[in-house]
Design a protein that fits this description.
The complex is a heterodimer of chains A (about 475) and B (about 230).
Chain A lengths: L1 H12 L1 H40 L1 E6 L1 H4 L9 H7 L5 E5 L1 E8 L26 E6 L12 E6 L7 E5 H7 L6 E6 L6 E12 L3 H13 L11 E5 H5 L9 E3 L2 E4 L5 H10 L6 E5 L1 H53 L4 H57 E3 L5 E3 L18 H28 L2 H8 L1
Parallel strand pairs in A: 4-9, 6-8
Antiparallel strand pairs in A: 1-11, 1-12, 2-11, 3-4, 3-7, 3-10, 5-8, 6-9, 7-8, 13-14
Chain B lengths: L1 E10 L9 E9 L3 E5 L6 H8 L7 E6 L2 E2 L5 H8 E4 L11 H11 L7 H14 L4 H4 L8 H14 L4 E5 L7 H18 L2 E5 L3 H6 L2 E6 L2 E4 L4
Parallel strand pairs in B: 3-8, 3-9, 6-7, 7-8
Antiparallel strand pairs in B: 1-2, 1-4, 4-5, 9-10
Classes of the chains: A alpha+beta (about 475), B alpha/beta (about 230).
The complex binds adenosine-5'-diphosphate and magnesium ion (MG).
The site of magnesium ion has 4 residues of chain B, from helix 1.
Chain lengths: ~475, ~230
C-alpha cells in the first residue's frame, strides 16, 4: 500500500525530528522496561516475604505497653483453641516450661548438689527450661549453631534431646531417663528418655554474659542455653495444665492470607482474648527484610515517572512543532484529493514504525540493563538500611533485670533480601507494548486530529 | 459536450463585505481550451478553487457532468476527475519530482500499480514538460521556480483527468517552454477531448484559446478580452 511506503519515506525525509522522537520514546521504553521488570520481580519476592513473615501471628502480652501490672493470663486451652480457625493454614505449637531438674545437675549451677527446698509447696528456683515443640524443624539453630553429636531428634512421646554440656556434666547417655519438674507447678512431672545429644555454639552476647555472671558470683542457670531441653509439644502438654503458670506459650499462628490479620484478631477476641494481649505480626522484621526492595522499587518508579513526564512534554512539544511543519504537506495531499483518513493513517503509521523500532531496541536494551541496574540499586538500599539498623541497634540493647543483655529489636536476626533475579516476562512485554502504543498515540494523534481538520485551501493560502 | 457548469455563483470571503464573484454563470465543454483573464485581485483564483472543489460556494451551484459538486465526494473528484496546476505549485518540497508524480498516481488509484512502471510514466511525463531524468530525481527544494512549475503541470496530467485547470501556468517559463506547454495543453483539449481552463496574463496563451472569459467587478465577460 502506497500509504505505508510513503510513511516509510517520510521517516527518512524528516530525519532530525524522527530521531528526536525516537530518542525520547526509547528513553521512556527502556526506563519502563527496567522499572516494570524490577517492580514485578520485587513484587513476587515481597509477596513471598510477606507470606513468610507477615502471615506469622503472635499472640502475647505487650509488656512495653502494659507492663507486668496489667498481666492477665489465658488458659493453655485458649491458646490451643485459637489455632482452630479457617483463616489459618498452619499452627506451630511451642511452649517453654521453667524447669527444675530432678536427677541431674544444671550447667552453671554453682549451688550444685543442694537439695530442693524442704517445703515441696514452695516453688523451686528454675535451673533450666523444658521446651515443647510440635515441629522439631522449627527449633532454631539446628543446622547452623546446633548440631547433633549423638542420636536423633525426638519423635515419640516422652523423648527428649539435651546439650552436650549437660550430658557431659552428668555423664548422661542416650537411653538414660531424666526427671524434670515444673519449677512453679508441683506435680507436673516428666520422665524423659534421652534420644539425642547436640552441641550448641554460644553466641558472643551469651558468652560475655556468662563471664560477667561468673565474676559476680551469680547463678542463673535457667538463663543458660545449655540447660534447655527439647521435647515434643505433646509431651509437654501430656501432664495437663490448668493454668499457664511457669509456662511460656509461644504458638505461631500462620495465616493463609496475611490480609486476614484483622479478621483473625476479631475471631480470637470473640474467643475471649483480653485486650492486653496483642495479636501482631512481626512488622519490623518484614520491613527489615523487604525495606531495601521497597526502596529500590520506589526509586525505580520515581525515575520512570520523571522520565515519563519529561518525555511526554518533549513528545507533545515535538508533535506540536511537527504539526506546524507538516501543515503544508497535509494541505498539498488534501488538494491532491487524498482523504483525511488516509493521511491520518500515514501519520499514525510513521509514529507506529518509530515506536515499533524503539520497542524492539528498548526491550532488548532494557532487559539487558535491568539486572545490573537492580543489583546496583538494591546494593545501595541495603547499605543505607544497614547504617540505619546499626544506629538503632546500638540504642536498642537493654540490660534486663536478670542481668541479661537483650535487644528490643524484633527484627533482630532478620537479614534484608540483598539479591534479586530480574528477568523480563511476558507480562512486562505486554505492558510495554501498551505503553508504546500510548506513546505513539501521544506523538501522533493530537497532531492528526488537528491537521486533518484544516481545509486544504486554507493551509495553502496561509503559506502563499 | 458540456462538462462543467457554474450557475449563478456568488462568492464572498468570510469577513469581507464585498463579494468577489457576483451571480456569475458559465459553461465549460470538453475538447476546448478556455482562458480566464482579469486584473490582479479580480477573482480568477477564487473561481478556480470553486471549480476544482477546493472551496464551495454558499450561493449558486457548480455542476460536474450535470451533478452538483457539493454532493460529490470532492476528494475523489480532485484526485481523479480534475488536474490542478496551482499558482504556487503546491508540491511536496522534500520529495523528488518523480515521487510527486507517482504519489499523485497512487492517490488517484491509478490502474498501474507496479512501481517501476509508474516511475517510467512519471519520467516520460516530466520529459514532455522539459524535465530530464537527472532533474526528475532531485528534490523539489532543489529545483528552480520554472522547473517546479513544470513538475506541477506534469502532476496535473499524471492521473489523466477530464478537466485540467491551470493558474498562471506559464508565468515562470521561458518562451520556448511556454510554447511547448501550450502545445501540450491544446493537444490535450483538441486530441484527447479534455476540458482545459487556464488563468493567464500572457498574450501567447489567449492566442491559443478557443474561448476567452474576462472577470471584472465580480462579473464574467464571456468571449471578451479585458
Ligand atoms: N482568503 C481570503 N480572504 C479574504 N479575501 C481574499 C482571500 N483570498 C483572496 N481574497 C481577495 O479576493 C479577491 C480575489 O482574489 P483572487 O481570486 O486571488 O484574485 P486573482 O487570482 O484574480 O488575482 C482579492 O481582492 C483578494 O484580496
Ligand atoms: Mg491568482
Amino acid at each position: 500500500m502506497y500509504i505505508i511506503s510513503n510513511a516509510i519515506k517520510n521517516l527518512f525525509r524528516n530525519k532530525g525530528r524522527n530521531i528526536l522522537i525516537a530518542a525520547v520514546t526509547l528513553a521512556i521504553i527502556i526506563s519502563a522496561v527496567v522499572t516494570l521488570t524490577i517492580n514485578n520481580a520485587s513484587s513476587v519476592i515481597i509477596d513471598e516475604a510477606r507470606l513468610d513473615i507477615a502471615s506469622r501471628v503472635d499472640i502475647s502480652i505487650d509488656l512495653f505497653t502494659h507492663g507486668r501490672d496489667g498481666r492477665q493470663t489465658i488458659t493453655v486451652e485458649q491458646y490451643v483453641s485459637f489455632a482452630d480457625s479457617a483463616y489459618l493454614r498452619h499452627t506451630v505449637f511451642q511452649a517453654e516450661m521453667q524447669a527444675w531438674f530432678g536427677n541431674f545437675f544444671a550447667v552453671g549451677d554453682f549451688e550444685m548438689g543442694l537439695t530442693p527446698p524442704p517445703d515441696p509447696n514452695m516453688p523451686h528456683s528454675p535451673v533450666g527450661k523444658l521446651t515443647g515443640h510440635s515441629e522439631p524443624s522449627h527449633i532454631s539453630g539446628f543446622g547452623t549453631y546446633r548440631h547433633f553429636v549423638e542420636g536423633r531428634m525426638f519423635e515419640s512421646i516422652n523423648e527428649a534431646i539435651i546439650t552436650e554440656e549437660l550430658a557431659n556434666l552428668n555423664s548422661l547417655q542416650l537411653g538414660d531417663i531424666i526427671h524434670i519438674e515444673s519449677a512453679f507447678q508441683h506435680g507436673k512431672h516428666f520422665e524423659l528418655e534421652i534420644v539425642g545429644i547436640f552441641s550448641h555454639e554460644v553466641d558472643e552476647v551469651e558468652a560475655f554474659q556468662s563471664i560477667v555472671w561468673e565474676m559476680m558470683g551469680f547463678s542463673l542457670p535457667s538463663m543458660i542455653s545449655q540447660n534447655e531441653i527439647f521435647t515434643s509439644f505433646e509431651t509437654l502438654m501430656s501432664v495437663g495444665w490448668e493454668t499457664a503458670d511457669g509456662l511460656d506459650m509461644r504458638l505461631e499462628y500462620y495465616l493463609r492470607n496475611p490480609n486476614d490479620l484483622v479478621r483473625f484478631e476479631a475471631e480470637v477476641r470473640a474467643k475471649g482474648l483480653p485486650d492486653v494481649f496483642g495479636v501482631t505480626i512481626n512488622q519490623a522484621a518484614l520491613d527489615r527484610v523487604t525495606g531495601p526492595l521497597e526502596g529500590m522499587r520506589s526509586a525505580a518508579m520515581t525515575f520512570t515517572i520523571v522520565i515519563l513526564i519529561l518525555g511526554a512534554i518533549v513528545l507533545v512539544l515535538v508533535s506540536y512543532l511537527a504539526i506546524r511543519e507538516r501543515k503544508y504537506e497535509v494541505g498539498v495531499l488534501r488538494a491532491m484529493g487524498m482523504e483525511r483518513g488516509k493521511i491520518a493513517c500515514g501519520i499514525f503509521s510513521e509514529a507506529i514504525m518509530i515506536t515499533a523500532l524503539c520497542l524492539i531496541i528498548g526491550l532488548g536494551a532494557g532487559s539487558a540493563i535491568a539486572q545490573p541496574m537492580a543489583d546496583r540499586l538494591l546494593a545501595g538500599e541495603v547499605e543505607t538500611q544497614a547504617e540505619a539498623v546499626m544506629g538503632a541497634e546500638e540504642g536498642g540493647r537493654v540490660l534486663m533485670s536478670g542481668g541479661q543483655v537483650q535487644t528490643d529489636d524484633p527484627a533482630s536476626g532478620y537479614r534484608p533480601i540483598s539479591d534479586i533475579e530480574v528477568a523480563i516476562g511476558m507480562d512486562v512485554i505486554i505492558q510495554i507494548i501498551f505503553i508504546a502504543l500510548a506513546l505513539a498515540a501521544v506523538s501522533s494523534v493530537i497532531g492528526i486530529i488537528r491537521i486533518t481538520q484544516y481545509e486544504p485551501l486554507k493551509i495553502l493560502r496561509e503559506r502563499a | 459536450m458540456k462538462c462543467l457548469e457554474i450557475a449563478d455563483v456568488t462568492y464572498r470571503y468570510d469577513g469581507s463585505t464585498e463579494a468577489v464573484l457576483k451571480g456569475v454563470s458559465a459553461v465549460f465543454e470538453k475538447g476546448k481550451v478556455y482562458t480566464i483573464i482579469g486584473q490582479s485581485g479580480a477573482g480568477k483564483s477564487t473561481l478556480l478553487s470553486l471549480i476544482s472543489g477546493l472551496d464551495t460556494c454558499k450561493e449558486g451551484e457548480v455542476y460536474y457532468n450535470g451533478k452538483k459538486l457539493r454532493n460529490l465526494d470532492r476528494d475523489e473528484y480532485r484526485s481523479k476527475s480534475i488536474g490542478v496546476i496551482f499558482q504556487g505549485y503546491n508540491l511536496l518540497l522534500n520529495s523528488t519530482a518523480v515521487y510527486n508524480i507517482t504519489l499523485s498516481m497512487n492517490i488517484s488509484e491509478s490502474d498501474i500499480k507496479d512501481k517501476k512502471a509508474q516511475k517510467e510514466i512519471a519520467y516520460a511525463l516530466l520529459e514532455k514538460v522539459g524535465i530530464d531524468r537527472e532533474t526528475a530525481d532531485r528534490k523539489i527544494l532543489q529545483l528552480s521556480g520554472g522547473e517546479q512549475q513544470r513538475v506541477g503541470i506534469a502532476r496535473a496530467l499524471s492521473h489523466d483527468p477530464d478537466v485540467i485547470i491551470a493558474d498562471e501556468p506559464t508565468g515562470n517559463l521561458d518562451e520556448a517552454t511556454e510554447a511547448s506547454v501550450l502545445e501540450i495543453l491544446t493537444r490535450l483539449a483538441h486530441e484527447e477531448n479534455k476540458c482545459v481552463i487556464i488563468v493567464t496574463h500572457s498574450e501567447n496563451v489567449t492566442a491559443i484559446a478557443d474561448e476567452v472569459i474576462g472577470i471584472r467587478a465580480g462579473k464574467l465577460l464571456i468571449g471578451e478580452k479585458v
